[in-house]
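Box 3.1 A note on notation
Throughout this textbook, protein chains are presented in two layers. The first layer is the amino acid sequence; the second is a token string describing backbone geometry. Keep the layers aligned when reading.
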Amino acid sequence: MTEPIPSLAQMEQMARQTVESLPAVFRVAALQVAICVVDWPDQDMLDELGIDDPRDLTGLYDGIPMTEKSVFDQPMGPDTVWLFREPILDEWRERGTVTIAELVAHVTIHEFAHHFGWSDEDIAEVDPWWV
């Protein structure tokens, strides 16, 4: 593997480029979602999801899916897509067959799928890995 390991900022830029490449019908709404890239998920996230090993969580959507939103919802904060750099890097090293940009795009699209309430078929139209 000769690809350099990206910084948090570089990984965030990869995720933002993925959002910019979404079909126009989704891009506008996706740009309203915060993207946060950190090294590891925090313990509260892991506990809430029942995950013991932080390496098992590469990304997380935190918010109310668009298919479930109501005008009566009182948002506690912006909808957020979290990407976890170290677990993504671990998966990238294990796979050895994809670029880090491809893997970041895959995780980003998967998390936005939760935001949009996409079906597997919807995801497959945007993410070629999803089959």
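The helical segments are 8-20, 24-30, 43-49, 85-95, 100-116, 120-126. Residues 8-66+76-126 form a domain with the Zincin-like fold (CATH 3.30.2010.20).
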